[in-house]
Amino acid sequence: AVLANRLSEVPHWNILLLEAGGHETEISDVPVLSLYLHKSKLDWKYRPQAQETACQAMIDKRCCWTKGKVIGGSSVLNTMLYIRGNKRDYNQWASMGNYGWSFDEVLPYFKKSQDQRNPYLAKSPYHGTGGYLTVQDSPFNTPLGVAFVQAGEELGYDITDVNGEQQTGFAFYQYTMRRGYRCSTAKAFLRPVRLRRNLHVALWAHATKVLIEPNTKRAYGVEFIRDGVKRVALARREVIVSSGAVASPQLLLLSGVGDAQHLQEVGVPLVHHLPGVGQNLQDHIAAAGLTFQVDYPVSLVMNRLVNINSALRYAILGDGPLTSSVGLEAVGFFTTKYGNQTDDWPDIEFMLVSTSATTDGGTQVKKAHGLTDAFYNDYFAPLNNKDVFSVWPMILRPKSRGYIKLRNNDPLRYPLMVHNYLTHPDDIRVMREGVKQAIALGETAALKRFGARFWRKLAPGCKHLPFYTDEYWECYVRQYTLTIYHLSGTCKMGPASDPAAVVDPELRVHGIKGLRVIDASIMPRVTSGNINAPTIMVAEKGADMIKALWRDSRRRRRRRSVSFDSEHCTNCTIFDL
């Protein structure tokens, strides 16, 4: 969506955007209902392979990877959290040979997109105003939201702007929200420019292959299926893959770009050997289900907040409990004993939530997370529809790496997805420490005044272990392991000297002319926080790189666009990008 907007600013470029899904819905606009979009027609409903290291409480021991199959992608289904990550993340990218990606060089692109509606933050040199993407504070907070921030202060942390000078500390979340409604990338970047004559958007168009001339190794078009018919779109200048960390490597592999041995195994003709395609898979995971009971009606309980009063307040004023992002109210960043506590580079993010899996009585949250009936009924059922809050410790820089591979050469079959969560011993240590700190947060006076007490029930699968021991917490985090849906890294950015790199620092696929990947899959290391904002930044920067290349080439008369004759273009359409 970002690329389509920025590239169509050049009036003589014809831009085609292919989207496998359809339009957003009225339900997707309502923040509190985001979990009801999981496993809907707007969701690819990916499920990685079962592994013994994580997700043991899920059906078939398989995690659920929700990814947006809709115009605007996962920004239509996510919880709208605007977190840029840590400046050291980007400086690390640059130190790996990725010129132009240091924090000082990417900050202007964060600010370019942003329309910060908080007047205090808008004055900060770290924020921008007037951009397409609206960022605002939540119009509604429960009393627990304030208590979360006070609890962090009680533990000795600063109250800070986590998108500013210092990340370590506690704060209220900032959201991609506009007047209480979701501000997806489709709403932010596509709707305002929908009347541009050079921008063409094809919905329900499933890309199946990038067309690459095998001798020159130049990308010249895309095959896609629409209305059950295979079609072709040709590109004079470039083909850009922005399908996410699962589908982007899948599409490259289907196009013959990837590990030669793997492509031979699945019957795809090799175009270019690039062994890093689909490797380096990273994700943020959290130990979910750490639930605390409270004695007062201060949390969000679904059967209490969904009523005519809330609906009218939302429809007329754009505020009230329906604007809550499923109870995500505050955030805390801190460094465990396994990190350098003198440095501002946290290894745990606390997602502080005025809800739990029990908030809706065991219906949609349980379904969205894929919990088994046996686990839910044993561990959570006694808390159904009661006032609770939860703390989700999320590991920020996991060392475990998964991968994406093809099952066969069928473009409509989902690829083989292996998450490898918690396979690195350092990840389990950091996660275990995060759980302990979550329990400590619940013991602060700020939360105790509501009668906060941890739900001290032994989790199924871990009842043979003594409570509060390291062994118990290790077992627990392997049960209710919740992906935060930050899949990244599978088309790693890096210089040509990096054998695992897929794209160069200008996001061009190594060894293939006229082909770029621009999405979260290019991240060499996942950023320290939620990745919606960084992914938008990557697209803003990528669009400028494309413009600069063709502008400079035109001046020097060195680069020519591809021309097509009738042999190339039978029953097809030609675009610039």
From TrEMBL:
Domain annotation Glucose-methanol-choline oxidoreductase N-terminal: ranges: 68-91, 244-258
The protein's required cofactors: FAD
Binding, FAD: V70
PROSITE patterns noted in UniProt: GMC_OXRED_1, GMC_OXRED_2
Keyword Metal-binding set for record: no
GO molecular function: flavin adenine dinucleotide binding; oxidoreductase activity, acting on CH-OH group of donors
Pfam family, one: GMC_oxred_C
Domain of life where this protein originates: Eukaryota
UniProt-listed InterPro entries: FAD/NAD-bd_sf, GMC_OxRdtase, GMC_OxRdtase_N, GMC_OxRtase_C
Keyword set, alphabetical order: FAD, Flavoprotein
Family of the protein in this entry: Belongs to the GMC oxidoreductase family.
Name this polypeptide is given: Glucose dehydrogenase [FAD, quinone]-like
